[in-house]
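Researcher: We're teaching a course module on how sequence relates to structure. For the next exercise, students receive a sequence and then see the predicted structure as tokens, so they can try to spot secondary structure elements on their own. Here is the exercise chain.
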Amino acid sequence: MMNNYEFDCDGSTRFIEVDGEQYVLVRFTAREPREMRDSQENINLNGNVALLAMEYFQAGLDGKISDVVRDNVIGKLTAREQENGEGENDDAE
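Model: And here is the predicted structure for the students to work with:
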């Protein structure tokens, strides 16, 4: 479902180091597409995502920063959902 969201990066970034690797913390906004919005309600996300510095710069050269941010955000949300789903199954046993 989030594959349809429009991801915008506002240009606000910060360099961070994690375990000796350089990352760029990218601020983003994800907007629900107009055709998916209820007349009174919409769901938007604002946040930061850490991208490897080289991945970030390559995405910039390719003009695909928004795509790379979207893929990373969706990947992290999917991983969390799977972790939470597995934990629920463990409790049922």
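Model: If you want an answer key for the exercise: The beta strands are 6-18, 21-31, 44-52. Helices lie at 53-62, 65-92.
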